[in-house]
């Protein structure tokens, strides 16, 4: 037992889950959200909306509860949601899937990512290539799976990777190339050239592509392009998405994995021992959501683009340099013009200084690379228009101070 505990603690420290003294390390999101609550600041840190999702989806969940859909779902998910996910992929992207074999319902995208990495990684000699900055669970899941995280930097202000650096990062040791597009935390959408290079390198080095596409319906200019639609990609790509961001229902934690049947089955083999299944009445409700008309999905993107533009205007007026996002919930700024030298310290002072909470981009990078992102801050635009306007007015006080 001592040996198991020690091994777990070493792995957890490597994942950033435990401090040197063995105490739990809170995520930056929990820490900054608590700071917002204690100071009364506008929370533009954590990426959750402050409005409920569409009424037909909420009504479908209530109906499911009333109709007795309250026990365990089947391990892969209810057949109607499996079918709805397959229909969605066909409708928007032309991807043909067998819902019984090539779709798996998960407890949000984060569980899908954890299950996928644990299923695919065989040992410490394998590597997972990610684009940095990255969603913080990536590093934790890779460490818990026992592999090595290999980051490829995304540079201010457009946050597109250098293709030569990408090619150097992907080797025969690479088991997975993990792509988040549209990208959290930077708000970038990768160019077709980048996506093509990912596919080329995956073939060259026999790697599996895992895509995190939770912001797929939040691309501001043009349609989202899943990697699985590119020539030669489908047979080695697992696509992950969820309902939370599209339908403003992050608390429902309903996601999915799609791709080749053998890879999806491998993910299921792990997933069944993590959560087994998620909340049953949410599954028929999300099936309803995925079948909403095209106008709904178009409005999701246009409304978020308008909110991002409003937030960007306020941030520029406050004196930040702003990277204009191409998608997602997020806008990244450089706080150096406001005198910041350390985004972490700047964000901890911001609630008292301006009544607004943001997240330092250094929370999304490996410790060795913190200096390269030292003055960058992420703000979330997924709030009501009046909240964003209030935040912009509060931030304007910085430039007047």
**Shape, per Cα inertia axes:** globular
> According to CATH, what is the class of the largest domain?
Alpha Beta
How many domain regions?
Answer: 2
* CATH topology type of the largest domain: Aspartate Aminotransferase, domain 2
Question: What is the count of helical runs?
Answer: 14
CATH homology superfamily of the largest domain = Type I PLP-dependent aspartate aminotransferase-like (Major domain)
Sketch the major β-sheet: 7 strands, mixed
**Relative helix content:** 40-55%
Please write the string of helix (H) and strand (E) elements. Answer: HHEHHEHEHEHEHEEHEHHHEEHEEEH
CATH hierarchy: architecture of the largest domain: 3-Layer(aba) Sandwich
Question: SSE layout and pairings?
Answer:
Elements: H1 2-14, H2 28-39, E1 42-43, H3 55-66, H4 79-93, E2 103-106, H5 108-120, E3 127-132, H6 137-145, E4 148-153, H7 163-169, E5 174-180, H8 192-204, E6 208-212, E7 237-242, H9 244-247, E8 255-258, H10 261-271, H11 282-290, H12 294-318, E9 321-323, E10 330-334, H13 343-354, E11 356-357, E12 359-360, E13 376-380, H14 385-400
Compact summary:
By secondary structure, this protein is of the alpha/beta class. It has 14 helices and 13 strands.
Description:
The structure is a single chain. This protein is 43% helix and 14% strand. It is an alpha/beta fold and 401 residues long. It has 2 domains: 2-52 and 295-400, Alpha-Beta Complex (Aspartate Aminotransferase, domain 1), CATH 3.90.1150; 55-290, 3-Layer(aba) Sandwich (Aspartate Aminotransferase, domain 2), CATH 3.40.640.10. The strands form 3 sheets. Strands 2-8-7-6-5-3-4 form a 7-stranded mixed sheet, with helices on both faces. It has a 4-stranded antiparallel sheet with strand order 9-10-13-12. β3, α6 (137-145) and β4 form a beta-alpha-beta unit.
């Amino acid at each position: 037992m001592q040996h198991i505990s020690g091994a777990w603690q070493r792995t957890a420290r490597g994942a950033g889950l435990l401090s040197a003294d063995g105490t739990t390390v809170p995520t930056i999101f929990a820490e900054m959200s608590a700071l917002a609550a204690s100071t009364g600041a506008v929370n533009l840190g954590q990426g959750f909306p402050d409005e409920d999702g569409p009424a037909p989806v909420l009504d479908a969940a209530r109906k499911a509860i009333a109709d007795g859909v309250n026990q365990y779902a089947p391990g892969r998910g209810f057949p109607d949601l499996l079918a709805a996910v397959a229909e969605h992929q066909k409708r928007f992207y032309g991807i043909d899937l067998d819902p019984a074999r090539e779709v798996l319902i998960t407890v949000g995208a984060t569980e899908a990512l954890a299950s996928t990495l644990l299923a695919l990684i065989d040992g410490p000699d394998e590597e997972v290539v990610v684009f940095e900055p990255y969603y913080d669970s990536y590093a934790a899941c890779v460490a818990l799976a026992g592999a090595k995280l290999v980051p490829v930097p995304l540079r201010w202000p457009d946050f597109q990777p250098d293709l030569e650096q990408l090619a150097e990062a992907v080797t025969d040791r690479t088991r997975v190339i993990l792509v988040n597009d549209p990208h959290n935390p930077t708000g970038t959408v990768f160019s077709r050239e980048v996506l093509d290079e990912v596919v080329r390198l995956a073939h060259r080095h026999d790697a599996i592509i895992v895509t995190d596409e939770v912001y797929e319906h939040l691309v501001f200019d043009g349609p989202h392009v899943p990697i699985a639609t590119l020539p030669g990609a489908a047979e080695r790509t697992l696509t992950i998405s969820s309902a939370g961001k599209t339908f403003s229902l992050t608390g429902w934690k309903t996601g999915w994995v799609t791709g080749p049947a053998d890879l999806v089955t491998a993910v299921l083999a792990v997933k069944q021992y993590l959560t087994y299944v998620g909340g049953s009445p949410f599954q028929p409700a999300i099936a309803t959501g995925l079948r909403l008309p095209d106008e709904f999905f178009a409005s999701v993107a246009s409304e978020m683009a308008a909110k991002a533009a409003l937030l960007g205007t306020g941030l520029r007026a406050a004196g930040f340099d702003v990277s204009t996002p191409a998608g997602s919930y997020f806008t990244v700024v450089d706080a150096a013009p406001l005198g910041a030298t350390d985004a972490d310290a700047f964000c901890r002072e911001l609630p008292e200084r301006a009544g607004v909470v943001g997240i330092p981009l250094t929370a999304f990078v490996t410790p060795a690379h913190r200096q390269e992102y030292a003055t960058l801050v992420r703000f979330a635009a997924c709030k009501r228009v009046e909240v964003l306007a209030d935040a912009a007015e509060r931030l304007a006080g910085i430039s007047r101070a």
